Amino acid sequence: MIEIDTTSTLGSIGVVTTEFKGQTPEFWAERCTEKICGISDNAEPHIRQQAEAYKLAIYSAILYYIKQAINSQVVTMKNVLDQQGHVDIAKILKELN
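Request: output the structure for the sequence above.
Response:
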């Protein structure tokens, strides 16, 4: 008879909510940065300092490009609404950005 003993862990699960809006670009940049840059608790102080600087640079780059993507999408949606004759909605969308 063959027996296989397996175990697994689910890991950490967190929930973050907002009221009447989605999450901010800063929220998503933080989540992304955390996935990319892990820093060991046992890291030497000079290594930790370098890693923290690297993590900040990664966060800044991700945040910049998330904001650019949002702006680009808003421009696309505004133009589609304009082309379809929904000028009033396009104006509202532009003001929300």
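The helical segments are 25-36, 45-83, 87-96.
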